[in-house]
Amino acid sequence: MSEVAKESVQPSIVLLVSGKRKCGKDYLSDALLKRLGHNRAQILRISEPIKRYWATQKGLNLDELLSDGAYKENYRKEMIVWSDEQRHEDYGVFCREACRTMNREICIVSDVRRRTDVRFFRETFKPSRVRTIRIEASDATRLGRGWRFEAGVDDVPSECDLDDFDEWDLRIDNNGQDDIETILERLVALTNG
């Protein structure tokens, strides 16, 4: 059993949510949490320990870095470079740190971006407990949500490492064809085993 598993509550289900910037990962994760209830589920963000460190080192506003606003975009490239250096030394460093706050039956990891993230969760928890979800939206839809291509962000592993990954338990087309209730029903079904 890993160091994480010994120190934290063992969730019965770990949902790994992945997708490109502005595909709706955070929106759908938040809606799922609301549906499941805070007493039963929680959201973990692998990026939170990265942003916490960055805020401390640079004297930045952590709440703004954690938000979906423009503030974090000013620092995104630097955070990617630094976090990639840390992952080179220990691929699970940020996943492990995020897991230290696990304390619910269902854990929604809302920002899975790399194959090593999936590997960490599969190695740390029983594979039967881990569910992988890919949220997809077209570039046109993402543009409508405020996305703009940025070299060094949208063409590096933090955005592209899972592009050809094919081990998804569920793929969700989040271009607006399905209403939120239909999508949530599909997500909730994954938590039922």
From TrEMBL:
**Which NCBIfam families would you find in this protein's record?**
Pmev_kin_anim
Say which species the protein is native to: Anopheles darlingi
The protein's enzyme class: transferase
**Which PANTHER family does the UniProt entry name for this protein?**
PHOSPHOMEVALONATE KINASE (PTHR13101)
Q: Does the keyword Transferase apply?
A: yes
Q: Please give the GO cellular component terms listed in this UniProt entry.
A: cytosol
Q: What is this protein called?
A: Phosphomevalonate kinase
Report the locations given in the UniProt record.
Cytoplasm, Cytosol
Q: State where substrate binds.
A: N174
In the UniProt record, the signal sequence range is: none
Query: Which Enzyme Commission number(s) are on file for it?
Result: 2.7.4.2
Molecular function GO labels:
ATP binding; phosphomevalonate kinase activity
Q: Which GO terms describe its biological process?
A: cholesterol biosynthetic process; isopentenyl diphosphate biosynthetic process, mevalonate pathway
